[in-house]
Amino acid sequence: MRLYTIEVSGKELAALELCDGKLYPVTDLGFPYNTMLELIRCGKEEDLAKLRDLAASEAVPGELEGKGFDKAAVVICSPIPEPDQDIVCLGLNYNEHILETTHVEDFREKEATVYFAKRAARISGPSDIIPAYSFVDTLDYEVELAVILGRTIKNYSKEEGDGCIFGYAVFNDVSARTLQFRHKQWYVGKSLDGYSVMGPCIVTADEIGDPQDLAIKCYVNDELRQSSNTKYMIQPVLDAIEEFSQGITMKAGTIIATGTPGGVAVGMENPKYLQSGDTVRCEIEKIGAICNRVG
Fold first, then answer.
1. Is residue 94 assigned to a domain?
2. What is the pLDDT along the chain (295 residues), one digit of tens a residue?
């Protein structure tokens, strides 16, 4: 199923997409979950099963007539607008990205996965503006597969399978490279307000199937900059969850950004960083796309 967060009458509500393409607030469907985090953390399995059945139905039940919203008629927010914990990120998780950035720092001989975090008081939605701060002249894009945990875990084993994953979304790990390099770590340069973008929805794990076989692309002003497949991740999704959760509690609703393929601006011989007015489109197979203008 495809779950959105939409703004209705000043409130942000979890909504389900039905076969007519309209979005139905979960509360209007008879379930007591206002927000996406409430649905993820408190959703009873029988309620989630009923939502899956509604999403899979080829007809909208008559009693729901008039309760759905056209996507163009509402504000579509990030599926999780305000996370409780920092976003967990994997750095340099595609070989082509490692090779294109050796002039910045050489990770060709790295022995373990690079993990870092992004602070996000609020995650931008699929059509929000990416801020063009006056002190950032090296604004970069990074399309990534986002993984959303469905339950709180610690010391997870990948032998347990993907039952800890609620779903997936498209993520843009917007980065201020000057700040990233100046501070000799990545937290500041990746944590400015508006530099985490996610959407357009969460597609639940049962619909995605294998997360290691999804086409992933990024366009800037309709120019294809990044084009790869998640099968080229160095550290696959379940391996990353297992490794990072050893000794670390990861709450239900935690967002994991799994790294970006090659093609970012900083990797170019003559970097084409983002400028005001540019449009960035990030898309992943089976999930959809987010498209944001720099303003």
1. yes
2. 999 999 999 999 999 999 999 999 999 999 999 999 999 999 999 999 999 999 999 999 999 988 999 999 999 999 999 999 999 999 999 999 999 988 887 778 888 999 999 999 999 999 999 999 999 999 999 999 999 999 999 999 999 999 999 999 999 999 999 999 888 789 999 999 999 999 999 999 999 999 999 999 999 999 999 999 999 999 999 999 999 999 999 999 999 999 999 999 999 999 999 999 999 999 999 999 999 999 9
CA distances from 167 to 80, 107, 112, 146, 149 (A): 12, 30, 26, 8, 7
Mark which of 45, 77, 109 sits at the end of a domain.
Answer: 77
Could you tell me if residue 30 is left (phi over 0), alpha (psi between -120 and 50 degrees) or otherwise beta? Answer: left
- Rounded distance between C-alpha atoms, residue 295 and residue 293, angstroms: 6
| Domain, as residue range, for 118 | 87-293
Domain-embedded: residue 164: yes
Q: For 179-248, give the secondary structure using H, E and C.
A: HHHHCCCCCCCCCCCCCEEEEEEEEEHHHHCCCCCCEEEEEECCEEEEEEEHHHECCCHHHHHHHHCCCC
3-state class (DSSP) for residue 141: coil
